[in-house]
Design goal:
The protein is mostly helical. Helix content is 74%, strand content 0%. The protein has 11 helices and no strands. α3 packs parallel to α5, α5 runs parallel beside α7 and α9 runs parallel beside α11. The longest helix is centred in the middle third of the chain and has 21 residues. The protein is elongated.
Length: 181
Amino acid sequence: MTLHSDVAELLAGAGILDVDVDDAVADEHVRSSAYRRVVSVTASSRSRDRDRALVATILRDPIEMVSKGAVVALVDRIAMKVTGPAEFRQWSAELLPEIDQLKTEGNREFIRRRIHDWLFHLSIKDGHMPTPAELAKVTDWMQRRLAEESTSPAVLALLAESGNTKKTRNIAKNRAGSRKP
């Protein structure tokens, strides 16, 4: 496969007709935008059958930062759509062999951490009360997201006490204080 045929196939599969394939091949910014549109269409589909093939195709892009960004966007969108941690764990497990094809360990690790963060988030949403040790294993990004979104007084109290950054601790403390009767 060539980059041209990969981009053409992704766009056609998503029904995106207004992106010039030659422009996308020539300019990584155009291609990155096209990938994100493909990811948006794919994530909104009910079927997850093509996700692994989509990720494999995107990860063939010669610029890993472009492909990593698109895969992270897909992970984020699917995580926000699934019914719980078990569904997301199963879905993400199917992608890991493809993610392992990335040449740069840092990029592979970034996507793995994002998946771990979402599994943590989904488990809390599903009723799990994390320990400080579990909280310490998620990224500052996820801790801040939880501080901004959680409605659980116990989770907010944990973040206010044990969040990695002062900003996260303050957000959680302020939100916990505003939730008291």
